[in-house]
Amino acid sequence: MINRFTPLLSTAVALLFSAFAHAQQLESTRGDIPPARGVVAHNGMVVAQESRAARIGIEILDRGGNAVDAAVAVGFALAVTYPRAGNIGGGGFMVIHLAKEDRDIAIDYRETAPAAATPTMFLDAKGEPDATKSRDSGLAVGVPGTVAGLALAHRKYGSGKLSLADLIAPAIDLATKGITVEDDTADSLPRAQERLARWRSTSGILLKNGGQPLQEGDRLIQFDLADTLRAVAQNGPRGFYEGATAARIADAVVKAGGIMTKDDLKNYQALERPVVRGTYRGYDIVSMPPPSSGGVHLIEMLNILEQDDLYTLGHGEKTFHLMIEAMKRAYADRAVFMGDPDAVKIPVLGLTSKAHAASLRATIGDKATLAADIRPGKPADNEGKNTTHFSVIDRDGNAVSNTYTLNFSYGLGLIADGTGVLLNNELDDFTAKPGASNAFGLVGYTANLPGPNKRPLSSMTPTIVLKDGKPFLITGSPGGSRIITAVLQVIVNVIDFHMPVAEAVSWPRLHQQWQPEGVFVEPGFAPAVLDALAARGHAIVPTRPATAANSIEVLPKGDFSPQAYVGAADTRTRGALAAGF
Ligand code: GLY
Asked: Fewer Cβ atoms within 10 A, N terminus or C terminus of the chain?
């Protein structure tokens, strides 16, 4: 008897012990963020910030489209259903894993500065940064990249079974018939009201009754946007970058004080770039290279953290201290080195090397390092929230991680008259003057000054983590400067702390960006952990949640279970959906 049951008993004890040990690792924080629930499917998954767009992605997979087709359809649909960040008037980045070819691709459809841009374009008469120019006027508008980027992705990496028009059709339908205002759109419109009300062309669409925001349950109909999307469906990107749409966009930007021309639009190119790669505890990290700083600094921080056994340190103060110190050092590098790779030389290999990480790790002690002891600079403020991320995988294991943005919520707030296109204010992501900071408090120097046709530095971090060459985790987030650290924490939660993806996404996050000195912490960290961090010298700054890491984890086939996709829609904003197929 004893012999027969001993192995069972010891397995049960071991399981119990490991569950207890796991709980011990996690007990130092608790989640106030509503828990995300993992959605399980086997043939495909789309996780997006808005449910109608996510379902459109699934429809496309159901019709035989691949993950890229689905992502393109979701991208166009969000421009209609999630106007605060979904867009065709902004730009972004798409990272693709092609299963059959075992190939990773990065598509850069970041906005560009107009040809007439100059390094001093955002300074006032005294030579000081003028935030009105870079955030609130037509000068802030970058040449939109989304239409070119999505069209490029479809043309080169779509399944070939569905035309671009097929992928845009659901968006046209929603814009024409109208959608009910709900969830995050209903939540965010009142906050954006003042910025939107400045433009008559916008008020007529997103506001009502003399300037009140549309409310939950109101109908949002976008005929002009439907016409613009129709022009793209019929003529491809030329329907946007040339002809009437381009003329109207350039006209709206100039009337708002900007310098964009029809030629700037005609000359816009989305680009393919080599992905940035790293490794972390046996996983491959595939992410977005410059002009995003996201991939480089994600890998830099992971390399620093890899030198310690985080699981043994526990999901508490010791790990968080290391994380904060890694963040500080990576963001200090960001400020100095990063910009448009076509305009400045960026030491990507050096910054993502294990040797650089080792030298940085050696500078981390038990106490918080002051920002000024890492690099000298000026303190900065922190505001704003924007951008949206979606993750897609199909039954063949093709995966897409896409983050795109208008910069601020609803961008500049200006809809170019007659087009339905909300325009970005992305050029605030340039550094107005060496040492100045953007709206997210991100400091920069000469590498990121504005200039003709340059792409402003971004933090967007669409990422695919591979295990044995196959997608394991697809993730990314909005959140301005907080994007890179949000992605870092999702990855560490899954890989180091073995959290299921929904838990990894829900867990409260912290953020440090070198300057300002503070560590921004979401609600939900245990007070004892925060006290212990403060005792090490970290300046704890409570903050509201500001990221939304819509992610997918791939669970490998087991002896008795098929491979499964687990989608986790971040609950930090209302309306996100993990839709399985
Ligand atoms: N506008 C936010 C970013 O690109 O990082």
From this structure: N
